[in-house]
From TrEMBL:
GO terms for biological process: folic acid-containing compound biosynthetic process; tetrahydrofolate interconversion. It catalyses: (6S)-5-formyl-5,6,7,8-tetrahydrofolate + ATP = (6R)-5,10-methenyltetrahydrofolate + ADP + phosphate. This is 5-formyltetrahydrofolate cyclo-ligase. It comes from Nereida ignava. Keywords: ATP-binding, Ligase, Magnesium, Metal-binding, Nucleotide-binding. ATP binds at K12, K13, A14, A15, R16, R132, L133, G134, Y135, G136, G137, G138, F139, Y140. Substrate binds at E59. SUPFAM superfamilies: NagB/RpiA/CoA transferase-like. The keyword Metal-binding applies. Its EC number is 6.3.3.2. Its cofactor is Mg(2+).
Amino acid sequence: MSSAENELALLKKAARATAFAARRIAHEASTDAAAGVLSEVLAGYRGSCVAGYWPINTEIDPRPAMSEAAAHGKVCLPVIEAAGKPLTFREWVPDARMIEGPFKAMVPEKGDTLIPEVVIVPLVAFDAAGGRLGYGGGFYDRTLELLRAARPTLAIGFAYSAQQQTALPLEPTDQPLNMIVTEQGVITP
């Protein structure tokens, strides 16, 4: 690892630590307001295949908005197949039987593999320019790059407003968000 790569890794580690602390505090004080804002945004994409996520730890919960979206179109959840690989997406319905996947995220036990047009992206931190800092595995970056190479794909970051940072240490491979939805509203870079 070069000194520039090492410095970037240290900057990302510090940004994640700050964001995790802010997210934990926001999560403890949270209401369902953000899910309502997300539902309003998704209403503009009815009929599109939407990928949500099953929240882990202190991630903001998109499931109420996913349930509403499922009444108007296909919804799917990400499945980690292997380290270094893009995500696949398995169809989800509100009463689906769920099993534990990697990182303790729940995934549908069975369902068709779908290709989403709208991806709700979990994150650790974001900035107003659409930068996103995840957990460091690169799953969403690889996946969004692949999806966007095939067709336009909308990436919606979903987070507590407290997770916003002024600027994030990003790499050329980091995929930008088209918008960020928080309990305070929608940020469009």
